[in-house]
Design goal:
Helix content of chain B: under 10%
Structural class of chain A: mainly beta
Order of helices and strands of chain A: EEEEEEEEEEEEEEE
Number of domains of chain A: 1
Largest sheet of chain B: 6 strands, antiparallel, barrel
Radius of gyration of chain B: 19 Å
Number of strands of chain B: 18
Oligomer: heterodimer
Largest sheet of chain A: 7 strands, antiparallel
Strand content of chain B: 35-45%
Structural class of chain B: mainly beta
Strand order of the largest sheet of chain B: 4-13-9-15-7-17
Distance between the termini of chain B: 8 Å
Shape of chain A: globular
Shape of chain B: globular
Number of strands of chain A: 15
Order of helices and strands of chain B: HEEEEEEEEEEEEEEEEEE
Strand content of chain A: 35-45%
Number of helices of chain A: 0
Helix content of chain A: under 10%
């Protein structure tokens, strides 16, 4: 264990919570809304580890501690590796959409094992609830798989930042690519814009008390009290955070500490 | 038998040293196939076996032939098996849900369905016996009734005849309420207390419904081994379970374990759950 490395970040969400919210296009250090299919790396603007040694080839970093100062209590924060993303899909089109699809080939977790699909909303879509499915290639390379239908477009699943995970077909354990997205019906009131994000969750912890940050409060050690979450940070990882909660427009000041295990 | 010798070995294993580790993430949607998930009942257990999950997919009613579900049965989390003669343990877990309640993760050891809630004679559950946590290790196994298709509105009681952890057959559970509002709906789990002095179950031979509930429906029996409880105090928040500094202390995930969850509801909102398990081999 040769090196410890902290990454500090701040995010102020524009979402009212209820479900998972992506921090990708949230200030500070906001990423861009993707205009085409792209694989994400530590050189993609918006990565928490942008221009940082975490994610470089010569290290084997693991998350050993997270510490958060949040504006309100009642949240969970997931650190994840953003693998591939697209944009340009519409919330009012109820035929199969292939704009900017298929997703760019994975450059990490290339087998697809453990990789999740999410529909990430960049501009609010309509408020009429419907369902969405994705056609994808699974971890074994089998194309034409279809996700289970999931809710999209209700008031809890239509706002900018909403991050809607799609359960895979029975028996599948991961995803290599997504070829198309189909909404069962229009979300009616707004086309908005959304895309497909492939990601791998790495670590989750929960700041429970607002306005505090210190040992024992909103502070998690991966070994003692933190649930032994020490997933490797792969070379070129594009780290971002997801938030859950019923908190309106949460603000987070956080630090993620990494240990080099080479 | 393997064991985690000390903290150093744990860190070594988690960072790629001796042994193996696995962090497996799950997302369980609040839907059953293409339909909305069943509405939970406050103070009752809801099976999430048939809810859409990634990985693992969607479980189904097992049918009238008893079976031993494994990690590859649709609906199971699908962790990898331990290798090299080692054993596998849960070192930690973390989860959140969209509403408050308690996730109870368990190993689904044996199950059967196709039972009738209007039949008032003993219904045999031939072959319903465990293949994990066998013999004396069956102490800690539980009997659950699982409803797959809604049964009748008339509340009655039910009992099970089983073989206990010591191998004594002919044991009979105390009666519990079965049928009627909140004890009849699809996905309902009814936990059966064991006879006085018993601590576990090797097999279940039959169940007997005391009086008809009025609708046959479809229910089954599960022999289950609870492993980890994850309480969610408020929707959107979550809990870290650390098996090193807290409880439970490194529960074993046996080879082939069929991990799934039931939900003890404190609201009537069907939950979405997201989380992960960190597992180590020793």
């Amino acid at each position: 264990m040769t090196q410890l490395r902290p990454i500090y970040f701040r995010k102020i969400s524009n979402n009212s919570g209820a479900g998972l919210t992506s921090s990708w296009i949230i200030l500070a250090n906001a990423g861009a809304i993707p205009t085409s299919a792209a694989a994400c790396t530590n050189t993609t603007v918006g990565a928490l580890n942008f221009e940082d040694s975490v994610g470089q080839n010569s290290f084997d970093y693991r998350i050993v501690r997270t510490s958060y100062n949040v504006s309100a209590s009642g949240m969970m924060i997931i650190v994840a590796d953003r693998l591939s993303h697209t944009g340009g899909l519409s919330g009012t089109v109820n035929t199969t959409q292939t704009t900017n699809l298929p997703t760019a080939a994975l450059t990490r977790y290339t087998s697809g094992e453990g990789v999740f699909i999410a529909l990430e909303i960049y501009t609010a879509i309509g408020t009429t609830a419907t369902t969405a499915t994705c056609s994808y290639t699974n971890q074994a390379g089998t194309a034409g798989q279809t996700t289970k239908a999931r809710i999209i477009g209700s008031t809890s699943a239509n706002a900018s930042g909403s991050f809607l995970i799609c359960p895979l077909q029975d028996g599948d354990t991961g995803v290599r690519s997504v070829e198309s997205v189909t909404l069962a019906a229009s979300t009616v009131s707004a086309a908005g814009a959304f895309g497909v994000t492939l990601f791998k969750p790495l670590q989750m912890s929960h700041p429970t008390i607002a306005g505090l940050e210190g040992y024992g409060t909103n502070n998690y050690n991966s070994i003692v009290g933190g649930g032994s979450q020490m997933e490797p940070i792969l070379p070129n990882s594009c780290l971002f955070v997801l938030m859950t909660g019923l908190v309106s427009t949460p603000a987070i000041n956080g630090v993620i500490n990494f240990m080099d295990a080479t | 038998m393997g064991s985690v010798a000390d903290l150093s070995q744990l860190v070594n294993t988690l960072t790629g040293g001796t042994g193996a580790s696995e962090q497996i993430w799950f997302y369980q949607d609040n839907r059953i196939g293409a339909a909305a998930g069943a509405t939970p009942v406050v103070g009752q257990f809801t099976s999430l076996w048939t809810f859409n999950m990634m990985p693992g997919g969607q479980g189904a009613a097992p049918g009238s032939t008893a079976r031993n579900p494994t990690r590859t049965t649709p609906g199971a989390l699908g962790q990898s098996d331990p290798t090299g003669g080692r054993q596998k343990y849960i070192a930690g877990a973390v989860s959140t849900a969209t509403t408050s309640g308690v996730q109870i993760w368990y190993d689904r050891l044996a199950d059967i369905s196709g039972l009738n809630a209007t039949t008032i004679t003993a219904q045999n559950t031939t072959g319903l016996a465990v293949s994990r946590y066998t013999g004396a290790a069956s102490a800690g196994n539980q009997i659950w009734i699982e409803i797959f298709t809604i049964i009748g509105t008339t509340a009655t009681t039910i009992s099970a005849t089983y073989t206990n952890q010591a191998g004594t057959s002919g044991r009979v559970t105390p009666l519990v309420v079965f049928g009627g509002t909140n004890r009849r709906e699809a996905t309902r789990i009814i936990v059966m207390p064991l006879a006085a002095g018993d601590t576990g179950v090797r097999s279940v031979e039959s169940v007997t419904v005391t009086a008809t509930t009025g609708t046959a429906g479809n229910f089954g029996v599960v022999i289950a081994r609870p492993l980890v409880n994850i309480p969610i105090g408020l929707g959107g928040t979550g809990t870290l379970i650390d098996c090193l500094s807290s409880m439970p202390a490194f529960p074993e995930v046996q080879t082939g374990a069929c991990l799934s969850q039931i939900w003890f509801a404190s609201t009537t909102t069907s939950p979405i759950t997201v989380g992960s398990f960190s597992m180590v081999e020793a």
